[in-house]
Amino acid sequence: MGPRILIVEDEEPLTLLLRYNLEAEGYTVDSVARGDEAEIRLREAVPDLVLLDWMLPGLSGIELCRRIRAREETERLPIIMLTARGEEAERVRGLATGADDYIVKPFSVPELLARIRALLRRTKPGQVAAQLIAGDIELDRETHRVKRGGRELHLGPTEFKLLEFLMQSPGRVFTREQLLDRVWGHDVYIDERTVDVHVGRLRKAINRMRRPDPIRTVRGAGYSFDETFAKAG
Ligand code: CA
Fold first, then answer.
1. 113: domain CATH number?
2. How far is the CA of 16 from the centre of ligand 1 (A)?
3. Is the C or the N end of the chain the one with fewer CB within 10 Å?
């Protein structure tokens, strides 16, 4: 079971988007739409991280954050605040109240996922590995280095993110649209063929010297990281 994340957010479409993306990354997700409900939920069980919206019915995010810090069981609970644009003064207050990080809406999902991983790596080093290893491929999220058979590969930033994303869920098939969403960010408009171009570049970079190709093209569906390849390591 992956790290547990509690989403406290009253915008349902955003909660659904976050839940979908977090579950795809292997997190266990719970959500509540009110600040006062979140307080009750946190007394029942303490998650590994909280995504906390600023403006909430019942109890504001800032007040909830203050109460979380005041309780011994949750005083170190990692909190990322979700704030609206233009609330600079409030953001500063949020950090002063004890949030570990904040992200301004509208944000890109890959950016938020990166922040979550960074925060969990600090607080739960065992749970979010800095390295992804599959077969003879090693990907280091901190140094952004990729090796195959011990030799360093040179990938562009997009190819790196694409490989990282695919390696996280071996065997799972992602459509081009899903890959655009998760790797490029949902607010960016790019033609789906761009995905094919970058998969092509990624393959070229990692499959030198006739090594087996770990990326599967699934006709009419999309791409996936070959799970048998992943297990072979
Ligand atoms: Ca809100």
1. 3.40.50.2300
2. 14
3. N
